[in-house]
Amino acid sequence: MKKLVVLSGAGISAESGIKTFRDADGLWNNYRIEEVASPVAWARDPQLVLDFYNMRRKQLFEVEPNAAHFALAEMEKDFDVEIVTQNVDDLHERAGSTKVLHLHGELKKVRSTIDHTFVHTLDGWELKLGDLCEKGSQLRPHIVWFGEDVPNIMIAGSIVRKADILVVIGTSLKVYPAAGLLHHAPHNIPKFLIDPNAEPDHYVQNLTVIREKATTGVEQLKRVI
C-alpha cells in the first residue's frame, strides 16, 4: 500500500467555519496575534492569553469536519495516509483519520507550565487561572507559541521522507520551519498542491497544482491518484 502524506493548513479548516489564525488583519480585539500567542504574552497577561484560546476552543466545539476532512479519512481504504497538520483543531481526527501529527499543538489539550511533557485533554472549552496540573503548576494551552521550538518538526520530516505521494492542502507553506517540509520529500514522487491561491515553488519537481478550495480540490485529487 502506497504512503500518502498530507500537509494541511488553515485553508482546509476554513471551510468548516474555523477562522484562520490571521483573520481581520492579524488582530484580535485590537491585539496583534503575537501579543496573545507568545511566552512573553503569557508572562505579561496570562488572562488575556487564556481568553483568546478559550474563544478559539469554544468555536471548535461549534463546528464540524467538512467534505475534505472526510475524503482524506476515506482514502485510508486505499493508501497508508499520514497527515501532518499545522492546524490546532481536531477536525481530521473527528472525520476519522487515524494518523495525524500536529505541528503547532492541539487546542483541546493543555499542559503543565513546569513540565511540558505533562499533557492532557481539557474537560470542556474553558481553561482558567488557578487550574493546576497534578504537579501544582498552572495549566497553559498546549500550543506552540511564537518564539517556541516546534518539537514535532523532526518527526514530520521523517514522515515526509517516506512518502510515495505528497499532498499539500490549504497552506502556503511560507512559514518556517513547516515550509521546509516539502523539500524533505523524494524528488521523483508525485506532489499535489491544493489551494485556490496557490503560488507553486518552481523548484519542486513533479508538482501538480489544483487551484481549488479544499473540498473540491480533494475530490479532484481522488480522480487522478
In the CATH classification, which architecture of the largest domain applies? 3-Layer(aba) Sandwich
CATH homologous superfamily title of the largest domain = TPP-binding domain
- The domain tally reads 2
Number of helices: 8
The order of strands across the largest sheet is 5-4-1-9-10-11
| CATH topology (level 3) name of the largest domain | Rossmann fold
Radius of gyration: 18 Å
> pLDDT under 50 segments (min length 5)?
none
Can you give the helix content as a percent range? 25-40%
What's the structural blueprint in terms of helices and strands?
Elements: E1 3-8, H1 10-14, H2 23-26, E2 27-28, E3 31-32, H3 39-44, H4 46-60, H5 67-74, E4 80-85, H6 91-95, E5 100-102, E6 105-112, E7 119-121, E8 139-143, H7 153-161, E9 165-169, E10 191-194, E11 207-210, H8 214-224
Parallel strand pairs: 1-4, 1-9, 4-5, 9-10, 10-11
Antiparallel strand pairs: 2-3, 6-7, 6-8
Helix pairs in contact: 5-8
Describe the fold and architecture.
- The chain has 225 residues and is of the alpha/beta class.
- It has two domains: 1-17 and 65-104 and 149-225, Rossmann fold (3-Layer(aba) Sandwich); 19-62 and 107-143, SIR2/SIRT2 'Small Domain'.
- It contains eight helices and eleven strands.
- The protein has helices at residues 10-14, 23-26, 39-44, 46-60, 67-74, 91-95, 153-161, 214-224; strands at residues 3-8, 27-28, 31-32, 80-85, 100-102, 105-112, 119-121, 139-143, 165-169, 191-194, 207-210.
- The chain has a six-stranded parallel sheet with strand order 5-4-1-9-10-11, with helices on both faces. It has a three-stranded antiparallel sheet with strand order 7-6-8, covered by helices on one side.
- Strand 2 (27-28) and strand 3 (31-32) form a beta hairpin.
- Helix 5 runs parallel beside helix 8 (214-224).
